[in-house]
Amino acid sequence: MCSGFTPDRWLSACSLCPRACGASRAEAVASAFCGEAADLRLAWAGLHFGEEPPVTGAGGSGTVFVTGCNLRCSFCQNRQISQEGMGAPVSRGAFAGICLALEKAGAENINIVTGSHAVPALADGLREARERGLSVPVLWNSSAYESVTTLRRLEGLVSVWLPDFKSMDADFSAAVFRARDYPQRAAEALLYMAETSPLSFGPARSGSTEVLRSGVIVRHLALPGRLADTESVLRWYKENLDGRALLSLMTQYTPIPGSPAVPFPDRFTEQEEYGSLLAFLEQLDIGDGFLQELNPDDEWLPDFSREQPFSSDLARPVWHWKTGFLPAVR
């Protein structure tokens, strides 16, 4: 086990996320739903230029992909790390060093992806990074299947939230996430995030753009053949968060060869569906936000076995689970 993380009761009977699976995270072979033991494991870190404009800014978002996941969607594009265990253990000091290296490389922020099952370790590492001089905002990029009690451990560390709101349909959530309570838990988490982090912008580290210093961007991936679910999510957003957060509507669903069957058409979103999304957005008159252009190809599927998992125009690698820091940043 990597040394340097604060001991916690979650090690013996995990209740970090709403599953409260009670697994012993102290064991070498993880029995938790997330697939992870006590060690913090990471897959990749680098500057990402494909996030929303107030996240990317001029320098890119300093993105850290955490191994494991407490939701494990059947259609996950990051299956290699969320469900297949790709990644390497890092100590608290090593994680803090990765954050500092990202800031040195020009990152506008530190963007932690899918860390819900590793909150104590990540919180310890972020505190050390702050003590060692980290000054950029920290973003929490998650599925929103969160325990509010656990999220409170991140107070004073995370100021920007990038949660997905995947579905308002309990039956669908049970089928694809094995989490019938997903809609309720996600809604609770989103409201907590908006209450604790009001929208605030500041200048980017370079250039004339502004970046988000505090606030929430609620992401929703529209799934082919499930526009009614998207309408339910957007209607909830309009009633509960419009004016207090930003909306990001994504259309990048990509069929993944060899993945489990899904209870919706396993294809790209079609132009007619995209037009319906535009019409519904106009009908709701949602305030500020972002809409992803329809671009049906597989460029969104990363390969984390490579030091550069993304297309070169989308990301600049800094650290990889196989090699550690890459030569350009050593």
Task: Report the sheet-strand fraction.
Answer: 15-25%
SSE pattern: EHEHEHEHEHEHHEEHEHEEE
Shape: globular
Helix content: 25-40%
| Low-pLDDT sequence parts | 1-7
CATH class: Alpha Beta
Could you tell me the radius of gyration in angstroms? 19 Å
Helical segment tally? 9
What is the distance, rounded to the nearest whole angstrom, between the alpha carbons of the first and last residues?
A: 25 Å
Major beta sheet summary = 12 strands, mixed
Q: State mean pLDDT (0 to 100 scale).
A: 93
Q: What's the CATH architecture name?
A: Alpha-Beta Barrel
Keywords: 4Fe-4S, Iron, Iron-sulfur, Metal-binding, Oxidoreductase, S-adenosyl-L-methionine
GO molecular function: 4 iron, 4 sulfur cluster binding; metal ion binding; oxidoreductase activity
InterPro entries: Aldolase_TIM (IPR013785), MJ0674-like (IPR040085), Radical_activat_CS (IPR001989), rSAM (IPR007197), rSAM_sf (IPR058240)
Pfam family, one: Fer4_12
Q: Which structural traits does this protein have?
A:
330 residues; alpha/beta; TIM Barrel; 12-stranded mixed sheet; 9 helices; 27% helix; globular; disordered N terminus
